[in-house]
Design a protein that fits this description.
This protein has 194 residues and is mainly alpha-helical. It has a single domain (3-179), classed as Serine Threonine Protein Phosphatase 5, Tetratricopeptide repeat, CATH 1.25.40. 61% of the residues lie in helices and 0% in strands. The chain is elongated.
Length: 194
């Protein structure tokens, strides 16, 4: 049985936590580091479905700390942050959101720019960074994404995912440019100007 599908089915059929936990144990027993199964479990545990922001973050942070080096599972806290930032209710401390973003940034840096494998992670991370107003970090992720704008997460925000991505990319560039001085401040000692 494809366990990712079973976990998604549990969410769609309103399975109880007990049933979900049984499926989760079976999935982990067969492949303890399967990113898709972890992402599905995280969605089930999110406040939008059958859990809470706390439960979602706790699961994501535990899984990320147990993940193998370079594993996409390390981005689960950023996925939890996305679930929170797109949810109309609840609260999560800013420090927890920043820690999730920092962990995902570290993972993203392990892959080459323009690598298609972490593209979805980088697109998700970019959204989280924009919502946290971490403009320089968001611009770095946009550079690393290269030509790989993915439909997720943009399809969750607009009917035109590519248009949403391009609009956001332009907005990040404008934010970074507006914070960049055009020339160094005048009157600095030791500048070598005569």
């Amino acid at each position: 049985m494809p366990w990712r599908i079973a976990l998604d089915h549990a969410r769609g059929t309103h399975a109880t936590h007990t049933v979900f936990e049984q499926l989760w144990e079976e999935a982990v027993r067969r492949s303890s580091y399967h990113y898709g199964c972890h992402a599905s479990a995280l969605q089930y545990l999110s406040a939008a479905w059958y859990g809470s922001h706390r439960e979602c973050f706790d699961f994501a942070e535990r899984a990320a700390s147990d993940a193998l080096p370079g594993s996409l599972i390390q981005v689960l806290p950023a996925r939890a942050a996305f679930a929170y930032l797109t949810s109309p209710t609840g609260s999560v401390p800013r420090e927890r959101l920043d820690a999730a973003a920092d962990l995902a940034i570290g993972l993203s840096r392990e892959y080459a720019a323009g690598d298609p494998w972490p593209a979805e992670v980088r697109n998700l991370l970019t959204y989280v960074l924009v919502r946290l107003e971490r403009w320089d970090d968001a611009l770095e992720q946009l550079r690393l994404i290269g030509p790989y704008a993915t439909s997720f997460p943009w399809d969750r925000l607009a009917d035109d995912p590519l248009g949403q991505f391009l609009e956001l990319r332009d907005g990040v560039r404008i934010e970074v440019a507006s914070m960049t001085p055009l020339r160094p401040p005048r009157g600095r000692e030791g500048s070598g100007e005569h």
